[in-house]
Design a protein that fits this description.
- The structure is a single chain.
- By secondary structure, this protein is of the alpha+beta class.
- It has seven helices and ten strands.
- It has helices spanning 14-25, 29-41, 92-95, 111-120, 142-147, 170-181, 216-227, and strands at residues 43-58, 64-74, 77-78, 84-88, 105-110, 126-131, 138-141, 160-163, 186-196, 203-210.
- It has a four-stranded mixed beta sheet with strand order 3-4-6-7. The chain has a three-stranded antiparallel beta sheet with strand order 2-1-5.
- β3 and β4 (84-88) form a beta hairpin.
- α1 (14-25) runs antiparallel to α2.
- The longest helix has 13 residues, at 29-41.
- The radius of gyration is 22 Å and the shape is globular.
Length: 228
């Protein structure tokens, strides 16, 4: 897991707060997608207990030294059913709504690092995460957190421009072609460039003409292979 440091710079997430408020007012596809995209880009304040412990490390010559390493234990919340939730705060004002906040230290945690921690610590039996539990109180079950990790939904109405490649990405094509050639259900594949109005840089767009008669599971397996 990436190193987690105590929060040094002020953390604010105004776009995420606005997205949560909009979703609370009217929950639809557009507000949900906007919320998900801002969650994935956010860094959160997380209450924790941080202590230093000494660990033995050997250098290239075999000399052993004791090195101070932080040991972090995160604070979890329980709901009425006793399920454990990972509390995430968008800013210090939201954190201070919790009466116990002054008793704990703070760590800064990104969405990506949160997912990595949850995957590596299944013994904690965490049910999910809750964003601003004393404010918007948005709960996200573990399944939802993991499902959105490798996806980026496009909000309805977003303008998209599609163009051709100026230069062929040789390494990408060399990796894709052998795999695609082993899949008889793929009729054709097209690689283009896609520019979204809400993103500063373009992305590759891979379009697959394929037989979907095998059902959703077969399509997922195909695209998981392409992604790999």
């Amino acid at each position: 897991m990436a190193e987690i440091k105590q929060s040094q710079q002020p953390i604010t997430n105004p776009a995420l707060v606005q997205a949560m408020d909009a979703m609370k007012q009217e929950r639809n596809q557009k507000t949900e997608i906007t919320f998900v995209n801002h969650v994935k880009a956010a860094r959160f304040l997380v209450p924790a207990n941080i202590q230093s412990e000494q660990q033995a490390k050997a250098d290239a010559n075999g000399n052993v030294q004791l090195v101070e390493q932080p040991k972090i234990s995160f604070v979890l919340f329980n709901n009425a059913e006793g399920q454990k939730y990972f509390p995430l705060f968008t800013d210090i004002a939201e954190l201070r709504k919790w009466q116990e906040s002054s008793k704990h230290q703070l760590a800064a945690l990104s969405y990506k690092d949160l997912c990595e921690f949850l995957r590596r610590n299944p013994e904690n039996e965490i049910f999910g995460a809750v964003i601003n539990p004393f404010g918007q109180n948005i709960m996200m079950p573990l399944e939802s957190l993991f499902r959105i990790q490798n996806t980026e939904a496009i909000a309805p109405g977003t303008q998209i421009q599609i163009g051709t490649l100026k230069e062929e990405p040789t390494e990408l094509l060399d990796a894709l072609r052998p795999y695609l050639a082993t899949k008889p259900e793929i009729n054709k594949a097209y690689l283009r460039v896609m520019k979204r109005e809400d993103k500063p840089n373009p992305n590759f767009l891979l379009v697959i003409d394929t037989d979907t008669s095998g059902g959703e599971a077969a399509v997922k397996t195909l695209f998981d292979g392409i992604a790999a």
